[in-house]
Amino acid sequence: MTITMNIVVCVKYVPDAQAERGFDDSDLTTNRESVEGLLSELDEYAIEEALKIAEGSEGEVTVVTVGPERAADAVKKALQMGADKGVHVSDPAIKGSDAWATSLILAHTINKIGSPDLVLTGMSSTDGSMAVVPAMLAERLGLPQITLVSELTVTEGSVQARRDGDVASETIVGTLPAVVSVTDQINEPRYPSFKGIMAAKKKPVETWSLADLGIDAGQVGAAGAYTEVIAVTKRPPRAQGEIVADDGDGGTKLAAFLAARKFI
Predict the structure, then answer these.
(1) What digits encode the pLDDT tens for the residues 36-75?
(2) Span 12-38, pLDDT tens digits
(3) I want to staple 150 with a disulfide (CB 3.0 to 4.6 A). Which of 62, 75, 125, 185 is the partner?
(4) Contacts of 145 (CB under 8 A, 6+ apart)
């Protein structure tokens, strides 16, 4: 039996790890305007899983991102991979938002989209690496959540997931709708084809502001953040390491070096 699935995937536009990253001098927030960025790599696994679930059904995949104007590139990449439509939440007041505010914006966005059967996210973002937004989002939506999923099976009304730990694997079953975050072990994301790139140009993308979502600007951004960066110091250049000449006692010298620093 074909299951019709309407899926929302939350993605993030992050600074390129290979670029020279830094902070804005004015407010010490991450500089996202003057540095090259891209779709967070870990979010590609969530997009791929959504596409796999939706293929062969009458459902659709909607991609949501929150960020400045350039964050639209994250939605564009997802549409090129095969997602059906996108929503970009952009507002000057969002700058400086923490995980708490981000989850608030995402929850309001998903509620405005409608009631999806499944909300998918990556395990974390490649810039912040906090991995807390999926849980916060599930709480705000009042939905069950399964995090760090390595294998996902969706049936009518339920979802079954495998979570791999260091010493064991767990099988978790939950009811739909649900929020699920996936790891980079779950699949191999597809590359956008030429056909997909051309088709993406005709797919709908809506841009919403905080006002469109009914969110007061004071709830997000630096004004609504629970944390504040008060100082930033550049990492000092790496000092040259100590060279130990091996005159037959190199192993002893190495052991003494490690022991002095309590590595052994």
Answers:
(1) 889 999 999 999 999 999 986 778 999 999 999 999 999 9
(2) 999 887 777 777 777 777 777 767 889
(3) 185
(4) 134, 135, 137, 138, 174, 178, 179, 180, 181
Task: Give mean pLDDT, residues 208-226.
Answer: 93
φ/ψ of 85, rounded to 5, equals -160, 165
pTM for this one?
0.85
